[in-house]
Amino acid sequence: MFKENKNKVETIIKTSEEFDSGRLDGIQRLKECGLILAVLASILLAVALFTFSPADPSWSQTAWGSDIQNGGGIVGAWVADTLFFVFGSLAYPLPIILTAGAWVVFRKRREDESIDLMLWGTRVLGLVVLLLTSCGLADINFDDIWYFSSGGVVGDVLTSLALPTLNVLGTTLALLFFWGAGFTLLTGISWLSIVERLGDSSIAGLHWVLNRMRGEKDEIVEPQLTPPSLIDPIQTKALESADETLDSVESISAIPLETENEPQPAARRFNIHMPKEEPVISSKVEAKVETDESFSAPLSPAPNYDYDEDEELPPRSKQLSATIEELDMVARESDDFAQDDVTSSAEPAHDGFMDQIDVVDEPPVDARQLENVVNNVELEDDSHIEPTISNFDVLDDDDEDDWQPQSAQSEYDIDDYDYEDEDSDEADSDEAEQDKDLTAFQSLVSEAQANMAGQQNPFLMQKDVNLPKPAEPMPTLELLYHPEKRENFIDRAALEEIARLVEAKLADYKIQAEVVDIFPGPVITRFELDLAPGVKVSRISSLSMDLARSLSAMAVRVVEVIPGKPYVGLELPNMSRQTVYLSDVISSPQFKESKSPTTIVLGQDIAGEAVVADLAKMPHVLVAGTTGSGKSVGVNVMILSMLYKSTPEDVRFIMIDPKMLELSIYEGIPHLLAEVVTDMKDASNALRWCVGEMERRYKLMSVLGVRNIKGFNDKLKMAAEAGHPIHDPLWKEGDSMDAEAPLLEKLPYIVVVVDEFADLMMVVGKKVEELIARLAQKARAAGIHLILATQRPSVDVITGLIKANIPTRVAFTVSTKTDSRTILDQGGAESLLGMGDMLYLPPGSSHTIRVHGAFASDDDVHAVVNNWKARGKPNYISDIISGDQSPEMMLPGERMESDEEVDPLFDQVVEHVVETRRGSVSGVQRRFKIGYNRAARIVEQLEAQGIVSAPGHNGNREVLSPAPIRD
Ligand SMILES: Nc1ncnc2c1ncn2[C@@H]1O[C@H](COP(=O)(O)OP(=O)(O)OP(=O)(O)O)[C@@H](O)[C@H]1O
């Protein structure tokens, strides 16, 4: 209580005094004087110690007559001698300790600061322990100075006590540890924090040394997330004055950097290359899409295609883009389910009946009654087939019987329909007989009609519909879906922000790079980076996964080389992806201007430019990608683009489709050389036919002296125009019934499309590889081109032989980098985004082009296919599929599959078997000392040649050849 009060009073006094004069109070004056004196004493002490001379008279020495050498005079000599005597060499730090002690005691403190006795006690104790142990350590380890022990008397006493028991090492260790304890007691510094600091600084030192050695000191850059004004105010000012309209930076740093008064900092402008305007399909085309009748009219016999023209249908583009729920809703609202079709095409008089039928969940009506009613309906109008009728015709007699009792309970009155059951009961037996015949006949007719109706179900593929021939010479663009409007919004600010983020993230990985160009595309955006000198591009490539993670992107593809530019590309997927429609690319000038009938569309490149290629120049293409990556759509797009460019006289197709789904749509177009091949055995025949055709074309070309199919066709045309049409020079009499060789015809390009090439390889095996390799090697000049698609990009499918001969590859998304290497001989396809995103490796180039594949829906394919079907029928060549593999049909250089190498021992074995009359494998094995496998193979060859029989049930073979005749 008292103390507190006193303090309070003192504080009040002190503040008033301080306020008045600003001078020290009495105690403070004493303290300061004490500090000054202590410093004086320290200095004198230091002088005395450093100028100590052993010749001076002192406490331990006696000297006469000579001058005192010590700088501190006789006092200095005495003090120094005494201190050296007591503390040895530890006397030297005493002036420092004295000054430090004086500072601690006399420094100016706040008056209310209490003195912590515990703290002071430990400090003093620490000082004593430190001094004693230091003396002890000095005594053991240092040399004596003059005639004093290096640890002084203190050190001597301590070591003489410890040495007999702990020896030198033990004493040193004990003193060291005590020294450490004394240090902590005195200073309060923990040894753990000392260890930590030491560790930190040694690691930092090591890093510094390593960075110096690697010479990358300059690469460590700070992420530049702060506005330029904070980094370089001069530069910012210049920028601001140059362009006042610059946008303000939205800082993505979490720290608020702007104050309200500060001017808005100017952003660094990135060079964003906006894509060109969309090619606009003329409104005429759009209008045509809606009123187009050429597509719907031919399908009119099928009930569902018979649209009511007055009824307003939603435009096709809308239908396509609508979800199933929306379509369902529309259908419900307009009530246009199958029932509607029936009612719209049926006679109005029958509507009531159909309505009644529709409300029945289970058929409780007499089947015969219904049948008759149905027949009546049918007879009235033969041209209309009612699909719903088939529901009732599938009933057999048993069912009819079962139903009989129910008919009595039927609550539906069907008497209105001129059916009188009672009459038949009253008729005589002849009439009954006639009725029976009539009923049987009618049921037969109705069954046939129902079957037909079943086959003409609009939901089934229509095979032979009579399509009216379109007026246009080639399919038109309105067959394809084209979106009415497209969101093509590019957010500059967002792109710039991403660009800054990319730079910052690269800086995190110690890569200094600057985004120089930004190319926003329909699916991805490419940021072109200018790397600082000396930064390897492989460092960025190896970081692609880390970058994708840190930029929260699905995948990031690094384009190591951009031809013609000194930059590196970083391709990031867009937030919202646009679909590239086939119509976009087909309507592009690139496609329109291309003259070749084998022009194929791939899609759009990253800048939205159409990517169009010529299959004739490729000359073959390998398409690979995992399931669902967009392969089939890609192949369809290639085929459709050729159907847009060429007539059947220009291009013919052979399609091989093991999946029976993808290419079977094309069945019936006039471009097909053979039916779509779905059986893999036939596929090898088709390929063999192609090889034969190739050889034939080569012979023809050599006779005409031209180098390729184009030259051949040109020469043919020239000759015809000159009035000298060329007759087939390879024709021989007897080849056909004609008296003279037929005229040569224009040779079309032949495109062989194989969807799921892996299946073909698995079923037919090596043979296919051989045939494909032969075609791939030579078929270019002969105008035969291959499109091979596979979802298994493994080396057993895409073999070295095939790869070597097919230089053009298209890779859709694959799962691993290894797969990507198998297809493209380089990585990258594993970072694609799927849904038609592809890498295209053009022929003779090692740089892949990223292409967003064009999308053709099934409706698009059907529309183009139907358009071509309406123009003509295919002229199938039956030999292509059914060609037998007989020796006469073999191609030059081809061997029968069963043709194995005949074993060198074959003749000897024949001799042995025929002589001994025993054709067992073990016998052959023993006699010729060969392995089982070889012996078994030879015996099988004997069987194939008819020398021995097949093994009987006991495994023995009978020798069929007669025994040799002996003389
Ligand atoms: N270019 C594209 N644009 C947009 N979506 C596409 C594109 N290509 C394909 N798709 C989408 O990807 C789906 C799968 O495509 P597709 O059937 O061609 O794959 P696939 O690789 O042939 O698969 P599978 O081998 O199983 O047949 C399609 O249904 C379609 O929705």
Structure characterization notes:
- Strand 5 and strand 6 form a beta hairpin.
- This protein has 967 residues and is α/β, with parallel strands linked by helices.
- Helix 5 packs across helix 6 (152-187), helix 26 (680-704) packs across helix 28 and helix 35 (921-928) crosses helix 36.
- The longest helix has 36 residues, at 152-187.
- The strands form 2 sheets. It has a 9-stranded mixed β-sheet with strand order 6-5-13-12-11-7-10-9-8. A 4-stranded antiparallel β-sheet has the order 1-2-4-3.
- The protein starts with a helix and ends in a 23-residue tail after the last helix.
- The chain is 48% helix and 8% strand.
- Adenosine-5'-triphosphate is lined by residues 579, 625, 627-633, 791, 835-836, 853-855.
- The site of adenosine-5'-triphosphate (ATP) has 15 residues, from helix 25.
What is the overall pLDDT average?
74
For the largest beta-sheet, the strand count, sense and barrel status come to: 9 strands, mixed
Low-confidence stretches: 1-20, 217-265, 279-324, 334-367, 373-424
Strand line-up in the sheet with most strands = 6-5-13-12-11-7-10-9-8
Task: Return Rg in Å.
Answer: 51 Å
Question: What is the strand content?
Answer: 5-15%
Bound molecules: adenosine-5'-triphosphate
Query: In whole angstroms, how far apart are the ends?
Result: 150 Å
Structural class by sheet pairing and helices: alpha/beta
Count of helix runs:
36
Helical proportion? Answer: 40-55%
Number of strands: 13
- Cα shape: elongated
Binding site for ATP: 625-632
Protein name: DNA translocase FtsK
Membrane topology: Multi-pass membrane protein
Region (Disordered): 291-315, 377-433
